[in-house]
Every structure is written in structure tokens, then in C-alpha cells.
Amino acid sequence: MISCDCRQIRRFSRRIEIDEALDMKLRFSWFPFRERWLPTCDDGSANEAHYICGLLTDDGGCGIDHLLNWMSEGKIRCESVLGGRSDSLDFDCECWTAHIGKENTIIYPAFSDTEDGHPIKTTIFLAALTDWIEFLRLTKDAPIKESLATTRNYE
Which domain holds residue 140? Predict the structure, then answer.
């Protein structure tokens, strides 16, 4: 049985601007589940950040290595759009979809439409993907996940 003292969990955080009126702080950490550790993302509130957190943690039931590879593909797609090689691209996970545009990315449940989605600046989406990938790579093989200590805040 894995036990966790939540006071020991240190979180990797990134503060990102969606627009001038709304700040979003993402926290990446691990939590114990059925004798293993799963990565998690949350923003500590009830705002729309759960859309991006849902997408970032959607491994399709295939595990961390698959998640890392797929998030890297999302990063490549963002860079392609931002670099002008594509006008827009979709990035689909099992339960979440992101329509990546030059200015904004719309994240929405996979079996929904973009009208139900949450827009985020594409540069912010790329930054969140990059940080999530870095967090997973740096911590996925750590034997004691509750003692991770990586924090970043962006204003």
C-alpha cells in the first residue's frame, strides 16, 4: 500500500497569462493511485483551466511513455503553426481535443465541438505543453515522487 503525506508533495508550477483579466497557475505533481503514481495537473480553482489539465493528463490509458510521446507531438504541431508551416492543426487525445491556430488554441472535450471549448493563446498552450513534458521527463523515474521539488512561477 502506498501512502502519501500531502504536506510533502512539492509542486511544479507555471503561472501563465490567458489575457489581461485572467491569470492561470498550473501545478504539476504526482499522486498515488492503486499502488502506483500518476501525474496530475490542477490550477487550484474552479475556472476553465481544467480543460488544459484534462488534455495534458490524457494518456489514453497507455501510460507515461505514450503520454510523453504524444505531448511531444502536440508541441511539434504548435511549433508548426506558430512557425507558419501550417495555418492550423488539430491535436486529439482520447478524451480531449485542441484546435491549434496561429493566435489561439481551443481546447474542448473530444466528442464535442469548438463552441464548447476554452480558448487559450497558442503561445501559452505551447509553454504549458513544454513545461508538462519537462516535468514528466525529469520526474517519471524518480523512486520517491512525493519529495519532488520543482516550482516555476510566471507573471
Answer: 11-144
